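Researcher: Can you fold this with magnesium ion in place?
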Amino acid sequence: MARVISVAGTKGGVGKSTTAYILAGRLAEMGHQVGLLDADPNHAVGDWHAVGEIKGITVASNITEQNIGDEVAKLEDAGADFIIIDLPGMRGMVQVFAFGLSDLIVIPTQTSRSDVEQALGLVHMIERNRKTIQNAKVRLLFTRISPSYTTGVDTHAYAQIAEHGAPVMTTKLYERKHFKEMTYTGLLPSASGGRATRSDREAVANIGEIVTEILSVLEDNTVSS
Ligand SMILES: Nc1ncnc2c1ncn2[C@@H]1O[C@H](COP(=O)(O)OP(=O)(O)OP(=O)(O)O)[C@@H](O)[C@H]1O
Ligand SMILES: [Mg+2]
C-alpha cells in the first residue's frame, strides 16, 4: 500500500505546491516510486514536473472530487510507494476526499497572524471530523522562515501554535531562492559538483531534514494524530 500525503491549506501562496514538489522530488531521488496528484487548477506541480521530469515521479493532473479515488487506486496498482496530493488553497470536496485517503496531512503556513489562524482553523476542522478522516496524522509546517534569524512575528506564531497544542513539524522550510528556481527548472536544488555553494548545500540539507521528519511521522505508530 502506498503512503498518501496531502499538502493542504485554506490560504493561498503559503508554499503548498513547493512542499508537495520537494517531498515528491526527494522521495523519488531516494529511489521510491512517487505519484504526484495535481489537484490545483493552476497546475503548479504538473507544470514544474513537465520541465524537469524528475525520474520516479508520475503526475496525474486535473484531479477533482470526481476522480481522486480512482487516480489514487491507479497509482497504487502501478506500484507507487508514496502518493503526494497538491491541493488548492481553499476548502472543497476534493480536500475532504483527499483527507479521507491520507496517512498524513501536511499544512504549510507562514508565520503571519492570518496564516497561522487559518492553519489552526483547518487543524480544528480535521479534528472535529475524525469520523470521516480516520487515518490521517496532521502536521503544520512553517514555511519561508529566515535561515539566519528569528523575527518577533515568528516567535509569536510559534507561541500561538504551542498554546493550541497543534502538531507542528520541528523542521521548517527556509526562505531560499532555490525553492523559487525550482519553479523554472522543475528540478530540486543540487549541491553536487565543485561549484556548489554553502547555500546550495543548506537548501539540499533542508529538504533532507523535512523528508526525514515526514518519514518518521509516518512510521511512528505510537502517535495517532
Ligand atoms: N521556502 C521558499 N523560499 C522561497 N520561495 C518560496 C518558498 N516557498 C514558496 N515560495 C514561492 O512562493 C510562491 C508561492 O508558493 P507556492 O506556489 O508553493 O504556494 P501555494 O500555497 O501552493 O500557492 P497556491 O495557493 O496559489 O496554490 C511561489 O512563487 C514559490 O516559488
Ligand atoms: Mg499551489
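Model: Folded with magnesium ion in place. The CA atoms of residues 103 and 135 lie 6 Å apart.
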